[in-house]
Amino acid sequence: MKKGKLIVFSAPSGSGKTTIVRHLLEQEHLNLEFSISAATREARGEEVNGTDYHFMSLDDFKTHIKNEDFVEWEEVYRDNFYGTLKTEIERIWATGKNVIFDIDVAGGLRIKSKFPEETLAVFVKPPSIDELKIRLKKRSTESEDKINMRIAKASVELATAPQFDVVIKNYDLEVALEEAVELVKDFVSK
After folding, report:
1. Are the beta carbons of 104 and 82 closer than 8 angstroms?
2. Digit-coded pLDDT (tens) for 147-186
3. Distance separating the N- and C-terminal Cα atoms of the chain
4. pLDDT grade, residue 2 (50/70/90)?
5. For residue 184, what pLDDT is reported?
6. Which residues pair with 53 in a beta bridge?
7. Using an 8 Å Cβ cutoff, are 168 and 183 in contact?
8. Ramachandran region of residue 16, left (φ > 0), alpha (ψ -120 to 50) or beta?
9. Helix intervals (H) in 28-172
10. pLDDT at 145
């Protein structure tokens, strides 16, 4: 099977990485397809199994870990696992497309370490921790405790930015979107 490119977008929750990834997926000339992560958490809002995530039980997830079915996986919060199934990358590469990820920082760095030549690892940096908290509250999808957990984790995640190939500062969304399109266009054309 011919390998395509892997484009990883990672950031603390609320940084805008999902908005950037959705914009990139709309750019047909980039030939991208979204890697659907596996997750043990419940669906939020209108999320759909097999479209937004492959939702699975904790036991099923642990069986996939034991069977080495993941390229990367992480226990992001207690009993809250996320991961990328090997079959997901293979499925997308089989269609001749490049894979784009919207994943946590640890997972993004693991993909980069396993596929160093094929991967562009991009870190999306928010304006500030205070702005992250505002964005997370506006979502109205999580409790105050969950938001505080995400904010605490964000400080640790921000320290990993230098380990990525590129840092996009999402202070102005339009500028960040343009920068992302140019970065990915250059990478996939190599």
Report:
1. yes
2. 887 787 888 899 999 999 999 999 899 999 999 999 999 9
3. 19
4. low
5. 98
6. 49
7. yes
8. left
9. 58-66, 86-94, 105-114, 129-139, 144-158
10. 82
> Taking the model in full, what pTM does it have?
0.87
- CA of residue 116 relative to chain centroid, distance: 17
CA atoms of 103 and 107, how far apart (whole Å): 6
Contact between 129 and 159 under an 8 Å Cβ cutoff? The reply is no
Kindly state the tokens that stand for 53.
């995530």
Q: CB-based burial of residue 149 (10 Å sphere; 0-12 exposed, 13-18 middle, 19+ buried)?
A: middle
Q: How far apart are CA 29 and CA 21, in angstroms?
A: 14
Residue type present at position 119? T
| Stated length of the chain | 190
- Find, among 68, 64, 67, the residue nearest to 81 by Cα: 64
Which range, 13-22, 110-119, 147-156, has the best average confidence (pLDDT)?
Answer: 110-119
Q: Write out the two tokens for 105.
A: 């920082």
- Quick one: tokens of 71? 């390229």
Q: Which amino acid is at 104?
A: D
Amino acid at 91: R
**Both tokens of residue 153?**
């984790």
